[in-house]
Design a protein that fits this description.
Elements lengths: L1 E7 L3 H12 L4 E5 L12 E2 L1 H9 L3 H7 L2 E3 L1 E4 L2 E4 L10 E3 L2 H14 L5 E2 L3 E6 L4 E5 L2 E10 L6 H5 L6 E2 L4 E9 L19 E3 L4 E7 L5 E8 L13 H12 L4 E11 L2 E3 L4 E2 L2 E3 L5 E2 L7 H20 L5 H29 L4 H11 L2 H11 L30 E5 L2 H7 L6 E3 L13 E4 L5 E4 L5 H9 L3
Parallel strand pairs: 1-2, 1-11, 2-8, 11-20, 22-23
Antiparallel strand pairs: 3-7, 4-7, 5-6, 9-10, 10-11, 12-18, 13-16, 13-17, 14-15, 15-16, 18-21, 19-20, 22-24, 24-25
Helix pairs in contact: 1-4, 1-7, 7-8
This protein binds flavin-adenine dinucleotide.
Length: 474
């Protein structure tokens, strides 16, 4: 059998990518080796940029329905970052377990006609000039492209021979969803600020511990660990003894009556040396892993998928050349590299010898300009993709304020000549009939890519050039 794209892995990145590809008209097969969804809460938050992305795709309502809290700030090394002044309609993190985010994305994908094939593991791949042959449960599936969204230990990445350089962890952590028998007076059951749940830090003991309420009475996300002593064996199971010792260390008398799942993590940070090898691409954790502090991993993967989906579909349909696909790596690699840098900074600040740096950071991070800078960064709102041409301040930034036609670009221009020109690219883009609803920062007009980023601003370079660059031949 043959298809356009095999997506290996149906986590958040794979599900989002499959939906984006389908919206843009590509045929997709999604396989996942797990027999079914794990239901684990794992990533607990959608950052403001991800909330905007869900809104762009008409998925705001289901995420709001399932969200357990709206939190008005983020954090960086324990310093809260105020989101309330961010330039967005969604100046908050949504607390929503990863399992719920996945359910919403999977339901969306099913509406688009694609069903995830669970219990199907990719174990081998070969590529040639025309396509990729992937071995899944012993059978070969043929596709024009393959995208590995198969997580941090990605088989696709290894089979494609893509290196994963980076740094080993300084330390380790344990994460668990627990039901507590006796309440902890220091933990709130409802919350709206990171201040309510930030880890209890014990610099003298070099450890950290924290609890986040999970929306049901007694149910909490418990995290504890130590960033100063490397984990001897990542694969070693967490013994009851170790778990109880961690619990006692940070929460003294707290009694846990049930552990729903528990897992280890480290602050290792690694990034794929390239995001494409021929017809094989990577997205999400397959392309980057880092310390899960600050809640950015799932959010990165969602945005990798938004960036890649429409580009790969345009190349598949023959509208665009491979140079469009190459902008996936040139745009997304630096974004993840920066998250790796900043999460490494967390680990460095935690080292005992860096007490002076911690004091300096604490002094700086409360300054409004610094706080705002960090908030813009962690929220994902300050991403600006490098685009050649004009230095206009809006170019490469996200477009906000209107829902986009799905899978398509959008031209908003008050110049009828521009609107006539752009019609040659329909239906890859929609030409808005009038721009009276355009939010004011956008002036006389903008061209927006299907992923919601501005690729041309009226009054700059000729529109024709931007149309060819981003939407291919007319
Ligand atoms: C404890 C914990 C807490 C976290 N907290 C946060 C947070 O608060 N905020 C945040 O943004 N991020 C957080 N993260 C990170 C977040 O969970 C990951 O970044 C996110 O899951 C990555 O999504 P993904 O789709 O790239 O990969 P994954 O979710 O790992 O999905 C990969 C999928 O691929 C499948 N697969 C693997 N190998 C194969 C194969 N060979 N063939 C077929 N299928 C395969 C797997 O079964 C899996 O379903 C946390 C992570 C952990 C572990």
């Amino acid at each position: 059998m043959g298809t356009d794209v095999i997506v290996a892995g149906a986590g958040p990145a794979g599900l989002m990518l499959a939906a984006e590809l389908t919206l843009a008209g590509a045929e997709v097969v999604v396989v996942d080796r797990a027999p079914e969804r794990s239901g684990q809460s794992r990533a607990l938050n959608l950052q403001p940029r991800s909330v905007e992305v869900f809104a762009l795709r008409g998925l705001l309502e289901p995420v709001l329905d399932r969200a357990q809290a709206k939190v008005r700030d983020g954090h960086f090394f324990g310093q809260t970052l105020s989101y309330t002044e961010l330039d967005t309609d969604h100046p908050y993190q949504l607390v929503i377990p990863q399992a719920d985010t996945e359910l919403i994305l999977e339901a969306r994908l099913a509406e688009l006609g694609v069903k995830v094939r669970f219990g199907q593991e990719l174990t081998a791949l070969e590529q040639d000039e025309d396509g990729v042959s992937a071995t899944v449960n012993g059978e070969v599936i043929r596709a024009k492209y393959l995208v590995g969204c198969d997580g941090g230990r990605s088989a696709v990445r290894k089979l494609a021979g893509i290196g994963f350089p980076g740094t080993d962890g300084h330390g380790w952590g344990v994460v668990a969803d627990v039901v507590v028998a006796t309440g902890d007076p220091s933990v709130r059951s409802d919350w709206s600020s990171m201040r309510d749940v930030l880890p209890k830090r014990s610099a003298s003991e070099n450890g950290f511990g924290g609890m986040i309420p999970l929306g049901r009475p007694g149910l909490y996300r418990l995290v504890f660990g130590d960033l100063t002593s490397p984990l001897p064996d990542r694969a070693a199971p967490i013994t009851d003894e170790e778990f109880q010792a961690g619990l006692r260390r940070f929460y003294g008398s707290l009694e846990v009556s049930e552990v729903r799942w528990r897992s280890r993590f480290t602050d290792a940070a690694r990034q794929a040396e390239r995001y494409r090898a021929g017809r094989v691409l990577l997205a999400g954790d397959a392309a980057h892993i880092h310390f899960p502090v600050g809640g950015q991993g799932l959010n990165l993967g969602i945005q990798d998928a938004m960036n890649l989906g429409w580009k790969l579909a345009a190349v598949l349909k023959g509208h665009s050349t491979i140079s469009l696909l190459d902008t996936y790596e040139s745009e997304r690699h630096p974004v993840a590299a920066r998250v790796l840098d900043t999460t490494r900074t967390h680990s460095l600040l935690a080292q005992p010898e860096n007490a002076g740096a911690r004091r300096l950071f604490a002094d700086l991070a409360v300054l409004p300009a610094a706080n705002h800078h960090l908030a813009n960064m962690v929220s994902g709102l300050d991403i600006r993709y490098p685009m050649t041409g004009s230095p206009h301040r809006l170019l490469g930034t996200r477009f906000r304020g209107l829902r986009l036609p799905e899978g398509q670009g959008l031209l908003l221009s008050d110049d009828p000549r521009n609107r006539d020109l752009a019609r040659h690219w329909e239906p890859r883009l929609t030409v808005a009939p009038d721009i009276s609803t355009l939010p004011s920062p956008y002036g006389a007009g903008v061209l927006v890519r299907p992923d919601g980023y501005i690729c041309w601003v009226e009054g700059d370079e000729p529109l024709k050039h931007a149309l060819h660059t981003w939407f291919g031949a007319p």
